[in-house]
Design goal:
flat, single chain, mainly alpha, 79 residues, 3 helices
């Protein structure tokens, strides 16, 4: 059996750490702890912002989401 590379181990550890942090944040139920709440804050989803800024931030989010789905699910846009 082939040994996993250091990158494989690092990605698995990263995923488990993310799940641990998110689980603790969900369990604590305090505002501003979860990944989604940080994402919303970064992209000002729940804040009053100018229409042009909201439109720009929405386009950035949709472009990133589209790229992520295409890349992970279908292997598009790889080097």
């Amino acid at each position: 059996m082939k040994r996993p590379s250091a990158f494989t181990v690092a990605w698995v550890v990263w995923i488990f750490f993310f799940l641990l942090v998110e689980g603790v944040a969900l369990f604590r139920r305090q505002k501003g702890d979860t990944f989604s709440e940080h994402w919303w804050s970064l992209f000002r989803v729940r804040q009053k912002t100018p229409v042009w800024a909201k439109a720009l931030l929405t386009v950035v989010q949709l472009a990133f989401g589209g790229w992520l789905v295409g890349h992970l699910a279908f292997g598009w846009w790889t080097l």
